[in-house]
Amino acid sequence: MAKRVLVLCGNGVATSTVACKKIQDYMANANVRCEVIQAKIGELASYADKVDVIVLMAMGATLPDTVNTPLIKGLPFLTGMGLKETLEEIKKHLQ
Amino acid sequence: METIASYFKIIFDVGPNVVLPFFIFLFALALGTKASKAIRAAIFIAIALIGIKMVVAFMGDNLGPAMKALSKNSGLKLDVMDVGWGAVAAAIWATPMGAIGIPVLLIFNLVLLYFRVTKTLMVDIWNYHHLITAGVLTYYATDNVYLGFVGMMLAAFITWLTADWAAPFLQKFYGLPGISMPTLSSISELVIAAPINELLDRIPGVKNIRGNFDSVRKYLGLFGEPAVLAVIIGLVIGIMANYSIKDSLNLAMNLAAVMIILPKVVAILMEGLMPIQEASSEFLQKHLGGREILLGLDSAISIGHPSVLTAALILTPFVLVLAAILPGNQMLPFADITVIPFRIAFVVALVNGNVFRTLVIGAVVLIQVLLCGTVTSPVLTKIFLAVGGKMPEGAVGVASFSGGSLFVTYAIMQTLSFILSGVIISAVVFGLFLLVAKSQQRKAIQLMEEEEENTYAAIQNKSTPL
Question: Which of A82, A93, B89, B243 has the smallest C-beta neighbourhood within 10 Å, fewest atoms?
């Protein structure tokens, strides 16, 4: 089964779309099969334990202690700085 | 003047589903995007515009009659439908000004950076829609294209300068060095929040209340799930409208569908705009000439702080009750009830996470949103209909928590239309804001530094290894 990455942002529309698209393109190029899920921060509880890695576009957020899924901060998707490293890190969790 | 008028007419004749994509295509090419990518972007913009219209029409078909029954059976006169910020943004992008807005604002931003008026480089093209909305609303309110452009640039000017002002405490609170957040839907509230916070600083007793709201998330957590929230709202409206159980349940499910599908359709708009976003961002960064800048990003990156979520959970049911009892309000909050976190994200940083203060200020902000939304609804409705929207049966107009419901946008619209009440309110609020801005900025940073020192001292005392 393809591994899953959850992209979380404030309302699941703008910033998370940018991240989703870039992750999908990058993984497709690298031949990594994965499913990218886009959600609002409020929906976290419903997804947290069903995914392999979480990309957080909301910087102020803290995840509940019950969530053990690896977490990656998604700021590079917006600034472009360190984007490749971030994508590589996501890739590691998806292989 | 003639040419502009005929240009606007031609565009409306061809239809926004064709014209905006065409402009986006040309604009993407001009910025150096590959033709294949530009075509795809343009088509996705059209898909999004069509999709948003479909979902909003479905919402109108279901919510409209319920609103009518609600006012007949409960006496609540809530006949302005909250179609959500996405629908407003789509309507605005579809106007002739929407297409030209992006290049105008790009250049305006570079000019202001060049002359060091602002430090914010707004690479977040997506949220240009808030600024363009201020322009289009002004244009429709005054029937003057030039005033429309003045309104748009005024909105940009206020947004970027306020973003500069807020950047120091937002950076510190959210841990985002080098960044500012020129998102008008979050910035606008600071203009109201700063004076109120200054007032709270001066009231003995109230001054030190922080409040303990830890249990809130346990009991109100359901309100954080948009689908569940929509079902609850649907059921309450259905029952109050004297619907049968069967009809209430159907209304609830249909509204839940809208709540989940609408953002997904709006996300298609973002997908279409992405090549423009990337190319514009590159264009902006290339033409900077080594100026000191703050990278202006979407305020979405600040949503999710526990205090923001806690306060939003309390304010969500509050705004529904408020809508029913607030004199002068006609808006029935629905599609935008999930954006409350955006309205308070910066307030939380200003008050250093104090949930009590966030609630007090948040309540005032929501009162303002409902009232300004009601007042500016006729103009927005005119635009909504002009770009091919359909008036829902049972409603007299549309509104959202965005557009004219934002104080800054309301102030620009009313002032440029020379509506006396609006001019006075705007002058007073902006006057108070300017009066306290400096001290509020200083205090916000000071509060965070004190907290840091206390935490550090506590760690030292315990001498626990980090």
Answer: A82
Domain ranges of chain A: 3-94
pLDDT in tens, B156-167: 999 999 999 999
Residue B184 lies in a domain: yes
- Write out the residue range of the structural domain in which residue B73 sits: 2-452
Q: What is the pLDDT of residues B173-184, one digit of tens each?
A: 988 888 999 999
Indicate the number of domains in chain B. 1
Extract the tokens encoding B446: 């000071």
Position B193 in a domain: yes
Give the minimum alpha-carbon distance from A2 to chain B in angstroms, rounded to a whole number.
22
Q: Which tokens go with B139?
A: 């244009």
Domain membership flag for residue B461: no
With an 8 Å Cβ cutoff, the interface of chain B facing chain A consists of: 86, 123-124, 126-127, 173-176, 179, 221, 224-226, 263-264, 266-267, 270-271, 274, 277, 281, 295, 297-306, 308-309, 338-339, 341-342, 345
- pTM value is 0.90
Q: Which of B301, B314, B348 to mutate to test the interface with A (most CBs of A within 10 A)?
A: B301
DSSP string, B184-241: HHHHHHHHHHHHHHHHHHHSTTGGG-----TTHHHHHGGGGSHHHHHHHHHHHHHHHT
B342 and A78 within 8 Å at the Cβ level: the answer is no
CB neighbour list of residue A64: distance below 8 Å, 6 or more residues apart: A45
Closest-CA distance of chain B to residue A90, Å: 19
